[in-house]
Write a structure and sequence with these properties.
Length: about 475
């Protein structure tokens, strides 16, 4: 729990209770909490871990409730006055005015019912408070089930909120961070035009490459997953809302699904629409698996870029040392003057976490039994954690490492001159096997390729110089 929840618990111990009730009877709820009986039952029954439902899911659930209220009022199944109060309550939650109102753990019912009811109860409580403040006399108080949850079930609300939360996290957090890094890499690419260096494959010397070409590869490693992430939004835009308990739409009026999706699109500026098959939408999480696959693709590519950067920056004297990266902090508590590639290491740790989350999401998504998947809270938690961590890591890597990369031209030139794989350009002139003999002879004798080639009698020095031009090999 957060500090607010702890204080409420302390007040509860002193007897500051109010009595709430649900379909199972009465429950004592701490006096100053905005939730009701079902939230309190969940707090008491699921004292598991410290992980609470992510803020992104609370936001998405609240947006769904606001859109549903608008649709229900328009369809005539919810009194306009009640609908307006629910909307105002949702606006307060979205504005962050009730930060301690959503304390439930991820480790609860697999449908997310308790968190759906937590939002229902808080919105009802806040709406009734608004009615009092506004001097509005209600024939019946706003009810969490009958009014806030009208035309809905946890079984269609939670997967709908999951799609909304994933969409917002991808578009508002991850894509902007990745696009900014790609822009930085493009600038670095342009800045290093004309620098030729040794390429490497299998951690061994390879033929020359322009440093700008190498950087362009890094840039594409960021840009391509961005395209893949954008391609996942179409599937995430299909919503389970309107399927209610098992996909049949029981207790939801005709056109509720399309109208609520329309309202949700207006609230978020994203395109949402009813899933064409609600039975599939309730039990399958394939759109989320697909989307997290794109998140994982970016994580995998970031792992590769970070590894390249720290290898190239290794040293400072005994490693490759072909680039310099910012020295952000002391690297050792015992070795004075040591500086480490810490931003690279942070990226690789985040990448590992994302890959682990992907495995968990895949397993959880496979557990759709009959009409419902019952692993949705952990899917939501892991998905949003992946996006948040990766977005933050990408931004940090951009700001504290990539923007400060500087080519060590002298080291690049020296390594290029010493590379035996320049011999590749000789193959069309003297043949593959003779070229191999040149490389082997130079390596064994500690001589240059030019000296080896001339001593073997394959080419004159002048002919070798005319052929072996690294700048023309890229």
């Amino acid at each position: 729990m957060d500090a607010d929840d702890t204080n409420r618990g302390a007040n509860a111990d002193k007897g500051a209770y109010r009595i709430e009730h649900d379909s199972m009877g009465e429950v004592r709820v701490p006096q100053d909490t905005p939730w009701g009986a079902q939230t309190q039952r969940s707090l008491e029954n699921f004292r598991i871990g410290t992980e609470t439902l992510p803020r992104g899911m609370v936001r998405a659930l609240t947006l769904v409730k606001k859109a549903a209220a608008q649709a229900n009022v328009e369809l005539g199944v919810l009194d306009r006055q009640l609908g307006t109060l629910i909307e105002e309550a949702a606006d307060e939650v979205l504005a962050g005015l009730h930060p301690g109102a959503f304390p439930l753990r991820v480790w609860q019912t697999g449908s997310g019912t308790q968190s759906n009811m937590n939002v229902n109860e808080v919105l009802a409580h806040v709406a009734n408070g608004l009615a009092t403040r506004h001097g509005v006399s209600l024939a019946r108080p706003v009810h969490p089930n009958d009014h806030v949850n009208c035309s809905q079930s946890s079984n269609d609300v939670f997967p709908t909120a999951l799609h909304v939360a994933a969409t917002l996290a991808i578009t508002e957090e991850l894509l902007p961070s990745a696009h900014k890094l790609a822009s930085t890499l493009r600038q670095l690419e342009e800045k290093n035009e004309g620098i030729i260096k040794c390429g490497r494959t299998h951690l061994q010397d390879a033929v020359p490459i322009a440093f700008s070409q190498e950087i362009s590869g890094w840039r594409s490693l960021v840009e391509t997953p961005c395209e893949q992430l954008e391609a996942t939004l179409e599937g995430l835009g299909r919503l389970a809302l309107g399927g209610t308990a098992v996909g049949t739409g029981l207790n939801a009026p005709a056109d509720f699904d399309s109208l609520a999706a329309e309202r949700l699109s207006a609230l978020t500026s994203h395109s949402f629409r009813p899933a064409p098959n609600k039975f599939h939408a309730l039990t399958s999480k394939d759109a989320v698996v697909f989307a997290h696959g794109a998140v994982k693709a970016l994580a995998c590519n970031m792992m590769k870029v970070a590894n390249d950067v720290r290898w190239l920056a290794s040293g400072p004297r005994l490693g490759l040392g072909e680039i310099r990266i910012p020295a952000n902090e002391p690297g050792s508590s015992i070795m004075p003057g040591k500086v480490n590639p810490t931003q690279c290491e942070a990226v690789t740790m985040v990448a590992v976490q994302v890959m682990g989350n992907d495995a968990a999401i895949g397993i959880a998504a496979s557990q759709g039994n009959f009409e419902l998947n019952v692993f949705m809270p952990v899917i939501a938690y892991d998905f949003l954690q992946s996006v948040r961590l990766l977005a933050d890591a990408v931004s940090s890597f951009d700001a504290h490492c990539v923007r400060g990369i500087v080519a060590n031209r002298e080291r690049m030139e020296a390594n290029l001159r010493n590379s035996l794989m320049l011999v590749t350009c000789l193959s069309p002139h003297i043949g593959y096997e003779r070229a191999a003999k040149v490389a082997q002879s130079a390596f064994a004798g500690g001589t240059s390729l030019r000296e080896a080639c001339v001593s073997l009698g394959f080419l004159s020095g002048e002919a070798f110089d005319a052929i072996c031009k690294p700048q023309e090999m890229v």
